[in-house]
Amino acid sequence: MNVYSDSTREQTYSVDGKIYKNIIGSFGTEHKKRIIIGAHYDVCGEQEGADDNATGVTALLELARMLKGQKLNYRIDLVAYTLEEPPYFRTENMGSYIHAKYLKDNNIDVYGMASIEMIGYFNDDKDSQDYPLGILSWVYGNKGDYITLVKKFGAGKFVKAFSTNFKESNQIKTETFTAPKFLKGIDFSDHLNYWNFGYSAMMITDTSFFRNKNYHEPTDTLETLDLKRMAHVIDGIFMSLINLK
């Protein structure tokens, strides 16, 4: 990201005697209020992790290229997190917890955060989409042919504005899923730590294991991804960011 960003830095910390790093690339550094766009770069076990979460990291790298030289209304920090996967998930060792806590401890003005978590798997077949509650198929359909904007009730101004912009960009079929924080799957990514520190945060996802049965398996490979639709997701994120007022 340092080729494109105004500044790039490493946020280092230690877990069990080992050093881990978040990588942060910043754009529009003349602005005080900032937006965090994050994705984890670690993988669960010895596997490629193509959808989970090489797609998210790819999005960060492409967004870095696209944001270079853009006139922005906010500072945008692209953050690649370490230690999202088990056994560190839901612990204070998550890279996103370290980053969110840093923001809070230093009273940094944050408009909001979006986690890019698995954006490359799509399936147009009937019954290719599962849900935490079966009744949801009546609302969203049974085909895994869309990207999902996941948010909790009372998500905040950033999430509302970003979601509106994303859908209006008309880049890809999009569904917005709003639910209580305790519903299974709604907090299965780095945005949960920003929720815990009181920030307006959301997740952009292909719904993970509710659709992609290669989740946390050696079969999560590049060949299973729909790169064209993934590119449209990234374009939607970019257009959402540059049009935020």
TrEMBL record:
Residues 22-237 form the Peptidase M28 domain. InterPro entries: M28_fam, Peptidase_M28. Pfam families: Peptidase_M28 (PF04389). It comes from the Bacteria. GO terms for biological process: proteolysis. Coiled coil: none annotated. This is Peptidase M28. GO terms for molecular function: metalloexopeptidase activity.
